[in-house]
Amino acid sequence: SQTIHQWPATLVQPVGSPLSLECTVEGTSNPNLYWYRQAAGRGLQLLFYSVGIGQISSEVPQNLSASRPQDRQFILSSKKLLLSDSGFYLCAWRPGTGYGYTFGSGTRLTVV
Amino acid sequence: SQQGEEDPQALSIQEGENATMNCSYKTSINNLQWYRQNSGRGLVHLILIRSNEREKHSGRLRVTLDTSKKSSSLLITASRAADTASYFCATDSFGTYKYIFGTGTRLKVLA
What homologous superfamily does CATH list for B4-110? Predict the structure, then answer.
């Protein structure tokens, strides 16, 4: 069966520090991968998605970036965090178009 | 920008009652999905309904889709305290690889 792993669960980082959040999927190949961010009490904002290795689509211009170094690995990064980067970050995957997402458990990031 | 908008934003009902949440969207879709999110957790997929379908059931859940009105509804029958969560609709437009989520309905079921 397929599983998705996202870590860490919580993170407190100072302004200006770097960020690296990792997401991996097991039990499938060539998944569509996604990073969403959710502000407190709000809906989900799509940040990045990838339909293949090395293919990254960015939805929102910001100081975040994403990479897909391996087929089932999706990384969200920042060189210098801003206070506004605080939020709940969710990784998700699906086999392809026409399928629902399976979400990871999320990372709660607080930038102080 | 948000594609879907849920209504109401918040809903409080007694255990055993039915809960109805609505979702409206703006552009033509390939399919629409509903997700549940318990506080501080990831989202859980509930139901996917395709644009050529009008109604789907899953246990106590019933989803309808009216593409002419660009709207969908989620009905939870005989609600339980464990149904307390936020519910989101998400739409997948033709030719895209992504779902756009609505703002969610916060459901509280009182025991």
Answer: Immunoglobulins (2.60.40.10)
